[in-house]
Design brief:
4 copies of one chain form a homotetramer. Chain A is α+β, with helices and mostly antiparallel strands. Chain A has one domain (about 10-310): L-amino peptidase D-ALA esterase/amidase (4-Layer Sandwich). Chain A has helices at about 80-85, 100-115, 140-150, 230-245, 280-295, 315-320; strands spanning about 35-45, 45-55, 60-70, 85, 90-95, 125, 170, 175, 175-185, 185-195, 200-205, 205-210, 220-225, 255-265, 300-305, 310. Chain A has a 6-stranded mixed β-sheet with strand order 4-3-14-13-10-9. In chain A, strands 1-2-5-6 form a 4-stranded mixed β-sheet. A two-stranded antiparallel ribbon of chain A has the order 7-8. Chain A is globular. The two termini of chain A are about 30 Å apart. The relative contact order of chain A is 0.23. The model of chain A has no long low-confidence stretch (mean pLDDT about 95). The interface between A and B is large, with 40 and 40 residues. Chains A, B, C, D: Belongs to the peptidase S58 family. Chains A, B, C, D: This is P1 family peptidase. Chains A, B, C, D: It comes from Kribbella hippodromi. Chains A, B, C, D: Pfam families: Peptidase_S58.
Amino acid sequence: MVGMQTPRRVRELGITVGTLPTGPLNAITDVAGVRVGQTTLTGDGVNTGVTAIVPDDYAGTLPAAIAVGNGYGKLVGSTQVDELGVIETPILLTGTLSTFRVADAFVTWLLARDPSATSLNPIVGETNDGHLSDIRRRPITPTHVHAALDSASPTLPLEGCAGAGTGTCALGFKAGIGTSSRVLDRGTVGVLVQANFSGVLTVLGKQLPAEPIDADGNSCMIVVATDLPLDSRQLGRLARRAIFAMSRVGSDYSPGSGDYAIAFTTNRTPTYADRDLRTPFQAVMESVEEALLNSLTMAQTTTGHQNHTAHAVPHERIQNLT
Amino acid sequence: MVGMQTPRRVRELGITVGTLPTGPLNAITDVAGVRVGQTTLTGDGVNTGVTAIVPDDYAGTLPAAIAVGNGYGKLVGSTQVDELGVIETPILLTGTLSTFRVADAFVTWLLARDPSATSLNPIVGETNDGHLSDIRRRPITPTHVHAALDSASPTLPLEGCAGAGTGTCALGFKAGIGTSSRVLDRGTVGVLVQANFSGVLTVLGKQLPAEPIDADGNSCMIVVATDLPLDSRQLGRLARRAIFAMSRVGSDYSPGSGDYAIAFTTNRTPTYADRDLRTPFQAVMESVEEALLNSLTMAQTTTGHQNHTAHAVPHERIQNLT
Amino acid sequence: MVGMQTPRRVRELGITVGTLPTGPLNAITDVAGVRVGQTTLTGDGVNTGVTAIVPDDYAGTLPAAIAVGNGYGKLVGSTQVDELGVIETPILLTGTLSTFRVADAFVTWLLARDPSATSLNPIVGETNDGHLSDIRRRPITPTHVHAALDSASPTLPLEGCAGAGTGTCALGFKAGIGTSSRVLDRGTVGVLVQANFSGVLTVLGKQLPAEPIDADGNSCMIVVATDLPLDSRQLGRLARRAIFAMSRVGSDYSPGSGDYAIAFTTNRTPTYADRDLRTPFQAVMESVEEALLNSLTMAQTTTGHQNHTAHAVPHERIQNLT
Amino acid sequence: MVGMQTPRRVRELGITVGTLPTGPLNAITDVAGVRVGQTTLTGDGVNTGVTAIVPDDYAGTLPAAIAVGNGYGKLVGSTQVDELGVIETPILLTGTLSTFRVADAFVTWLLARDPSATSLNPIVGETNDGHLSDIRRRPITPTHVHAALDSASPTLPLEGCAGAGTGTCALGFKAGIGTSSRVLDRGTVGVLVQANFSGVLTVLGKQLPAEPIDADGNSCMIVVATDLPLDSRQLGRLARRAIFAMSRVGSDYSPGSGDYAIAFTTNRTPTYADRDLRTPFQAVMESVEEALLNSLTMAQTTTGHQNHTAHAVPHERIQNLT
């Protein structure tokens, strides 16, 4: 692995996305009660991992909805969220072929915490990190999964080459995990992304073209957390805006991309009028745009499987844009 | 396990469902190129298993669609089928908490057969067999999964207490796997069900009430296979009729039921006009009704987890109806 | 028009559907604040009309959802209900080719009642009454539409050959409008149907086959009203059960049928747990089954367009079943 | 009406959107067999109209699909397109409150052309032109509708203040109808838009902020025509990209916007592989972006209802961007 450039968040590079104020961490963990934990696997042709988004009270169920931008992905748990409008577990992200291995280890962890459970709907999203990671080896073990869940903390999550973003690439550059948040009068919106999709990197409208990375798959998983008092239908509206916001950084929404957004709220008493959703929508779109940029500027040049290298976006190219 | 009564298919009991002719086996395997394999686990409080529906040419993808009757279930693979309109793997059925363990073993099997695959969309359905099986133990191993896939044959599948139906109950009785088929001018429709839902057993319109079985979950997985030249949209229309047909045997479509139908065709050249779908719809509904009845009359009284017993429906009660 | 037989509701014929108690009227108008008005057009080859379901407080919006059983229909207003989860107008039913004429007259009526409205989402459902009515003539005028709306009352609605059911046929017999209700601990469920679909009439499981009526279209519109505290997602679950219940009276869910259910609640504060929906689901299914039977037993033999005659189901055939 | 500036298409202003070649007209009418006709109503506080997209062989049905970006709109015809995957009529666009009046006149026109039709599924989209037009007056008559249909021609459609775009505004400026096309190896993609939505105008990534126009509604209707051999599922994928592309010109996807895309093909024999859709997706997104820009640069400053004025975007502001 080569990584001369110090990872920086895009705001540190002088880029301000949108007009709404960020939370104190500018992260999904600005939403009270939402923690993130990650396990990172590197070395020997492997660059993969697990990212866990853990709401405090998941077991009591939380209102939630999923938006499918392009369904070329193996998202676990979607039909039950559609039917019941809730999540009943944390949300995990990982690499494509490890999805079910991770989901099964997740079930082990959940069963250990609920002695009477006989039905569980784990949520596991994935993108394909096969360009930099020997994906067919499926190196993730239950220990890795449990470590991600058990280490979840309310601090700023690691971005770039961490957890489920360790091996992902986007827009011709090394990418990974990114996060951001916005604060509104009545609550907070936080976003975490696993970026792994094609297109031309666009920063505040300016393009930074790069040679496409010949990945086996291209996808984007977006998690939106909030404490706004929204019901599942309204969270679905937020989730669709998360998909729309991918366009702002240059996604080409390619036919082989698994683009999903899942939105949940920690607030179980919906009281929000639809006509007032304009600012929450804006908050989602600004947070997704900034989280996607952070996933790139926080990533480091990485060499992995079959000696493939994906380069970090040079920060000076971004700084020179402005 | 107690099972005095010899299992019989519902036609052997004098019940004829509908008016269309059945295929030679009256089974999903009447559709050319469709095979079924099953692994059954019993004993020591366990009654569970795996059922594999294996189309010959799955790897080249087959047109398919999924209908969600009630999404309280963990069906793996649905969003990609929605997006691309195809299955690219066989279809597995199992017990709820084993779903992801089974899916991961399935990935192992698929990777071994495709040395270049880095993305796969396994289809795994489930119902909750926790009343008769120690579901939290998750006893299914990769060996069980691979045995079901490897043993797939074009003969009449085992019905009742076999494979994924080993521990399931429906309509107050022991149920399990059932299958049936209908032959049309232009092709065959075959159905296989994993029956595990609540309601009042209804045979050709006559009710046979039974004490409800206090199951932790109630669900029905329905697989519809055909060789009719249908596209994925049309297969979705068939799949919805499969859900509708559950009513004919007395399903109450309870809020906690995971009721899904997946329909696929072995024919990749769609040429069927929608106005001609009346008979295929009828074929699906007749086959589902008969397969569900077979899942009951072929099942045997079973004792399992925590000494729970589910009784087979007494055949004389059915014969006395007519 | 010939109609020797006195129309009777199916309960008067000794048929009791289900086990839950009905409301005082056994009608959708048992839901407090829900009124029904109808305009009936007959003579000169015309048998058509308008049925209006008018909730008192529609203008403040009411939680609602639509289920599409088979989308071969021209239902006006569905995408906005899907997005916002509410109705903002009454619900009208009519004949297919008059749908937009009716919707435009409906807009006139609504604009007159809201001097500032510049956007409205009228809900208009339809089925094809072209077998008995000269449908291409589109005889319904604004006066007819406004009369249906203005005459809405909380009494027992006319059933059979009334309003939008004047010219419809179902299951080989003359059909029309039907209604029924069920009372639960926490509220009431009421249903009104416009029945116009194919299949074999089934009464409590017993079939009464009849020569198919060669209608140009076959469809069923179902309106479910309640005062239970449900949100739009839950109302969608109820609406799907309304579609499933069509099977109980023998619907064949033919490919050319426009089968829709719209469910709304007069209660704007959702507090109902999904695990408690079993009885509301049962109430919907019982009410739909009984409303559909009422639509037949209350209808009278009718002769109309091109001298087509549709016969009422002979009551003694139903009474002899039991 | 004031309009000093000569309307120009955005390419005439030196702006080139994307990299794919346009068709000869750079319009939806580059797709062989697709014609456009429009009726424009202006004066006395009215700025509205009708735009008709008329495929030659509509009556034989054409594969089609609809994508709902935000369902706050009254789109007529969507559920049948979802079910059957075809359009069976031309597509009309108009102003919100005239939707059903237009649809009824459309039925008149269709019935006159098909002496045996008793069921029709007209497609009518709308946006709210109430800021510049006295929308409650519903001034559109059958004559206006029939004129739009009858005048349909394969030439370059009028853009800006024409037809259904006469009174619409977008991104703080006067907008209207826009069109564009792209030519691929295997066929052509053409787009026509009715632009009426909020956000900040963005031209090739550069923002041109403007005072928001206080419109009563904000929406965008997008029609995508092609002769590529796609089935309805694939056309749905194209339609979703049309919604995604709204972001490129600065849409904020506000909660009150009715954003819909309908895609159809004149080619009834689907043979296109999903893995080859990358370029068709690109063609859709480039065409939508350019059509939306054309809808603005071709529009003229307009004064209408209640003396509201919407200003055309000054061309020099766009030219100065580059």
